[in-house]
Amino acid sequence: MQIKELEELIGAPLVERGRRQIHLTGLGEVFAERASEILRSVDELADLARSTKGPLSGRLRIGVIPTVAPYLLPELMKSIAARYPLVDARPREAITQKLIEDLVDGKLDVAIVALPVSEPSLEEVPLFEEEFVLVRPIEDAGKPVPSPDMLKQMRLLLLEEGHCFREQALSFCNISSAPPRDLMEGSSLSTLVQMVGAGIGVTLIPRMAIDIEAHRANVAVSHLADPKPTRTIGIVWRHSNPLAAQFGQIIEIIRDLGVNRQNCSEKLTSA
């Protein structure tokens, strides 16, 4: 049904039409919100029906943060396809804030993020702990590993704003939300590591990224001194999701993959 036909049916305008732009009216905004709620309820009814059919099956929309997706998602998709051939897995990569919004709005079924997310409507389940490691130019390989206070004085390469990994790295280095002028930003861990290989600075990356990122650049990767910085990777979903009881099957797969990925990391030197 076209918007114009719908307006004629209810006897009121839903959009304000200008020469170049169209805006929702007050009624249009309420109408759109209610329509979204109805569609979300329809999806939940479909999920409820699926939850009674035994093994996990049907559509499964999975959100993953960018600092996890390249290193976990390919194997996760392969494992889901092998163990649960009736599942239509649909991955989506986005920053945490966007994934949480989409979960709450019913646009995702689960999301793999760094915990905590502190959203009352969501269930959080920890999957594994992951260490941060230091990436330096290869020329620094034999030098002592710098402390957090020393890192603060170096040119630190970080992900751009919006990535939770950026905030975690700043926190470890005791750098405030207003970072020093010498800090440089990149849009991906791959970009940061390549810049380190070019001698531009140093960076922190999650351990699971070592095999893919560090082997592409002329860099040295080191453990940091205790207490080592870590993050908790977890899975979240809506409390109201009828499929929640079946997500344990996915949790088992992700935990195994996360631990294996970290154990396979090479090219590390101790602090």
Automatic annotation (TrEMBL):
Pfam families registered for this protein in UniProt: LysR_substrate
One Gene Ontology term, aspect cellular component: protein-DNA complex
GO molecular function: DNA binding; DNA-binding transcription factor activity
Gene3D superfamilies: Periplasmic binding protein-like II, Winged helix-like DNA-binding domain superfamily/Winged helix DNA-binding domain
InterPro entries per record: LysR_HTH_N (IPR000847), LysR_subst-bd (IPR005119), WH-like_DNA-bd_sf (IPR036388), WH_DNA-bd_sf (IPR036390)
SUPFAM superfamilies noted in UniProt: Periplasmic binding protein-like II, Winged helix' DNA-binding domain
Domain HTH lysR-type: 1-25
Family: Belongs to the LysR transcriptional regulatory family.
Protein name: LysR family hydrogen peroxide-inducible transcriptional activator
Organism annotation: Rhizobium rhizoryzae
